[in-house]
């Protein structure tokens, strides 16, 4: 997905009601006050860019939301207790319309990844007591397998053309934020990198809090990444795009994104930022001509996803501003900032978190630190994590970082504190990275080789070779396998009894 920024004119009230509100009300407000304002650009064809893009303004988008709400009520009745509707579909405008249409009709959407195992789908559907699945046409291949395991009511989702090109009656929504802040907005899943994925349920208040942090001004002489970035998550895209008046530029919904298609898209529209996958990053690192074209059309590339070879990232970062934002299932994308002193093209692997978030780094061992948030009532409206977990005093992310050798505010990601590979995830999925070292492996210099393998079956094993100490007559491993698995035995952290009640993130 690409994005283009628009300069705000007059007062912010022209674009935002000026108070915390639910997304539905903000969209309705903009459809009334500035109906021609651009919300998104959408490819006319699903398989090629030759036909160009269609501009979707806020009046169009509000109409699509009304159509989604009316369609749901017509076929399912009015929701009574925010019942769950599961959805897996192509990356198109229907995601945003269905999310807000479900809110109007009294439901919540469960957004599922197309890369789950059947066990993962079953677990999520059971957890949320989901009885209905919304299915697009053409039907994604994994849905048939899901339906053999679960008796679900199936409702065929109408086409993009239906939602955008038909005039739908206004669907009233009269709730005020003060009365519905704790009502559920939608559910989405964690990546499942450490086991079965689990569901995160966002309330209206969570979304409003995320929108609030997207509006935090950066310190003097700094730039905010959040103003540039509209991450791939439909909910985060909605919050950030609506709040920062950033138009989304959708990719082809019927084609697998790649570097060539990204270049093709920029022949038919303009954009400031492109969100790319690790696979595209690697391809650009090997194709200087294509990289040069993109650097002439874009200001920034943002890579989302698993690690890619450092050489590829270094090559790309030489030609264009290149960002690798930190992401957490429960924190989302905390705002990051940049100044010229950060030397972004040399230090792209480092994160500079906005000081207004109050992020802390607790030392684990050696040079490794874990990202924490300690509850602070003054920062309550900037921290969605404490809306998700209102009864905890601290949040342990489980994500490890090491400090920059000379810039105290810069931190490099070093993986998860408890990195494991999940046997519930297909080995072909993006989460399967045999070449990636866990942080524990990186800590131990004597480790010569570690190879993750699967022998003709969906089961995971790991072969580890540990260097021996030649000074001993009877060589023995310097590092035990148990120490590697456990991440070391001497975590230099305050005793549990002396620390605030905390919530440990599990990126399941």
Automatic annotation (TrEMBL):
Residues 423-445, 465-508 are annotated as: Disordered. Residues 41-318 form the AMP-dependent synthetase/ligase domain. Gene3D superfamilies: N-terminal domain of ligase-like. It comes from the Eukaryota. Residues 498-508 have a biased composition (Polar residues). InterPro entries: Adenylate-forming_Reductase, AMP-dep_synth/lig_dom, ANL_N_sf. Keywords: Phosphopantetheine, Phosphoprotein. Residues 482-495 have a biased composition (Basic and acidic residues). This is AMP-dependent synthetase/ligase domain-containing protein.
